[in-house]
Amino acid sequence: MSSSINNLDPHTQELLQQYHSLLPVFTQMADIIPERLKGFFAEAGIIVAAVEHRVKTEESLAGKLKLKGSKYPDIFALTDIVGLRVITFYIDDVDKVASVLERLFDIDWENSIDKRKLHETDSFGYLSLHYICSIPEKSYSDSEHPELNKIRFEVQMRTVLQHAWANMSHDTGYKSGVEIPKVYLRNMSRLAGMLELCDDEFSRIRREITDYRRNVQKLVASGNLEEVLLDGDSFKSYLQIGPFDRLGKRIASINQAEIQPVDLSNFLPLFKAMGFKTLGDIAKLVKDYSEAAYQIACFQIGLSGLDILSSSVAPQNLCTAFILKNGGGKVGLKFMLDSLNGESESNGAMAEFLEEQCKELPFMNQ
Questions:
Q1: What is the pTM of this model?
Q2: What is the CA 105 to chain-centroid distance, rounded?
Q3: What does the alpha-carbon distance between residue 328 and residue 84 come to, in Å, rounded to a whole number?
Q4: Rounded distance, CA 139 to CA 133, Å?
Q5: Exposure pattern of 299-338 as b/e (b: 16+ CB <10 Å)?
């Protein structure tokens, strides 16, 4: 034990002796609890920015006990020797994290505090939700360390922005009791308000994006494709209903080939470059150019003996037919190949070959 505590009263020294005897348990808790929390967050689909932990040092504890050690009858009366902090990206997720803690641990509601309800004008960074927790015996117990279930620990929950504010205000002495000129206090309060608005806006935007995605999925499922703008989310939902599957199976039947599924998301930039604005435009492409795409496939693989085909053959042949039928020629075909496969000089030769192949096909003369 450090010699710096020799001037403390006997009760405080006894508490520090208890602290040292339990230090291995405190350390074990600080290592194990965060990992368990991360596992439960993953199961619940909660993405957090960080889970931090610490065990109060002897020096820090001695300083606290020197001021108010008499109020603690034993070491178990202290609730913050083991401390955790869960930092979320969104303010909505603070309550989700809290619900996980409520399922995992016993919560000391009398000593827990929701600082978000204080509504102080300058309290943004101090809006953390603080739970005082303990591990229930039914969840975990250790016969060698029965005190494990008696030890309470603190978990602070707040957002990234609240965490940043708390660190900044601590660094500037904003809440330290040191007198600061009013102009600086006013500026700090303005910043607190801006950060709180940012927290609310981030959560609002996430909710609106989630609602938008759900609406897109409903529109796609109902077939109202003309109402759905073409973007990453809508195209992903569209691909889930297999818009090119029927054509792909028809092409595969030429050689009784097997279809190898591949990611078709790389067609999105190409479709946009071709001027498509909605999912309805892609549906119209499938409707109007499937026969032409099939003719191209017959000419390309009819005598090849290929028995494995990529699922990209259907949308690529649709794009080929569209480009040629609408006067894009070799330049348009090269752009398509560059978009799908990366820019290459060989794409120019392949585009020329494709144009030549398709020149005499029936769809080009209709």
A1: 0.71
A2: 25
A3: 62
A4: 13
A5: ebbeeeeeeebebbbbbbbbbbbbbbeeebebebbbbbbe
CATH architecture under which domain 3-160 falls: 2-Layer Sandwich (3.30)
Backbone angles phi, psi at 106, to 5 degrees: -85, 130
Q: What separation in angstroms does the CA of 353 have from each of 292, 325, 329? A: 17, 16, 11
Going residue by residue through the chain, which has 366 residues, state the pLDDT in tens, using 9 for 90 and above: 555 556 778 888 999 999 999 999 999 999 999 999 999 999 999 999 999 999 999 999 998 898 887 899 999 999 999 999 999 999 999 999 999 999 999 999 999 988 776 555 555 555 689 999 999 988 887 788 888 899 999 999 999 998 888 887 766 655 555 566 777 777 777 787 888 889 999 999 999 998 998 999 899 988 899 999 999 999 999 999 999 999 999 999 998 999 999 999 999 999 999 999 999 999 999 999 999 999 999 988 877 778 899 999 999 999 999 999 999 999 999 999 999 999 998 999 999 999 998 998 999 987
Q: Count of CB atoms within 10 A of residue 221's CB? A: 11
State how far the Cα of 319 lies from the Cα of 284, in Å rounded to an integer: 12
Domain ranges, ordered by start, for the chain: 3-160, 243-365
